UniProtKB/TrEMBL annotation, chain A:
Membrane topology: Single-pass type II membrane protein
Record-annotated membrane-spanning stretches: none
Keywords noted in UniProt: Hydrolase, Membrane, Protease, Signal-anchor, Transmembrane, Transmembrane helix
Family the entry assigns: Belongs to the peptidase S26B family.
Gene: LOC105044057
GO-annotated biological processes: signal peptide processing
Name this protein carries in UniProt: Signal peptidase complex catalytic subunit SEC11
Automatic annotation (TrEMBL), chain B:
Entry protein name: Signal peptidase complex subunit 3
Assigned GO CC terms: signal peptidase complex
Membrane association type: Single-pass type II membrane protein
Keyword line: Endoplasmic reticulum, Membrane, Signal, Signal-anchor, Transmembrane, Transmembrane helix
Chief location category: endoplasmic reticulum
Lineage: Eukaryota, Viridiplantae, Streptophyta, Embryophyta, Tracheophyta
UniProt xrefs under InterPro entries: SPC3 (IPR007653)
Function noted in UniProt: Essential component of the signal peptidase complex (SPC) which catalyzes the cleavage of N-terminal signal sequences from nascent proteins as they are translocated into the lumen of the endoplasmic reticulum. Essential for the SPC catalytic activity, possibly by stabilizing and positioning the active center of the complex close to the lumenal surface.
Amino acid sequence: MGWIGENLGSIRSLQTRQSLTQAVNLGLVVTSALILWKGLMCVTGTESPVVVVLSESMEPGFQRGDILFLHMNQDPIRAGEIVVFNVDGKDIPIVHRVIEVHERQDTREVDVLTKGDNNLKDDRLLYPYGQLWLQKHHIMGRAVGFLPYVGWVTIIMNEKPVIKYLIIGALGLMVMTSKE
Amino acid sequence: MHSFGYRANALVTFAVTILAVMCSLASLSDNFNVPTPTADVKVLNINWFQKQPNGNDEVSLTLNISADLSSMFTWNTKQVFVFVAAEYETAQNALNQVSLWDGIIPSKEHAKFWIHTTNKYRFIDQGSNLRGKDFNLTLHWHVMPKTGKMFADKIVMTGYRLPEEYR
């Protein structure tokens, strides 16, 4: 009897140790992802350093599911740049090109008009009624780099939540059952 | 150690790493290309020139745009977006940039072009400052890659002037 009890004890301590290691590993993965994201925010100076293109308004340059890397600094906005902006009353940021800029002499404030390359008309229809221009505070960043297709992962996850839960479940199961 | 999951993980990680390296190399190779574009824009006619009821000047132009942008295309170029903007300074604004025409060049074969057009977007000032105004016409381009960093630059053409009177 004593022999069995001894063994059981050692197995129990082994299991605690193993599950502790797994918990620490999981924590490391989560925190390093968070550090990477926050670090990118600091380096690029924008709240969302990476955006996924959701609409067809910039085709054929940017297609649905492409990824854009954003950057924001104190350089003034100029015509031709592709900016990501938020209009009041809409949650989803829009990626369009600047086609008109008016920069004030005294305050250096800018009035900006945007348009999607694939749209026929400029964006005044997207702005709230009566708003003619975007100002600096609407603009989250300008697009500097481009990576095709990768954004499909997030689009699929957002449109089919079942797949998202399946993936999270499978990953969780793997973390819990894996040894080493 | 040699389970199916372990091998699949190693394979996917390796494939993604190689893909990422190749994408960065493709983007970096764009830096070796030194483009030598040429452009010429002529204002053929002032179609009309008036003050809108809200007090802003508006002008309609006929333009002749010719350019050769074929030296911009590399193997990593998806398309080149090109536009012509009127740029000028007023008492109120340090810089006004108004896009007049734009186009998408899908391939090197189409990069040498010539177009005769009226302004595609309305040329409206903020205020009434356009009479007798000197302005620049700037040909901007934006190289959109298949993957990686985007490039942009411009050619400034000076010496354009709007008429003294509305017409």
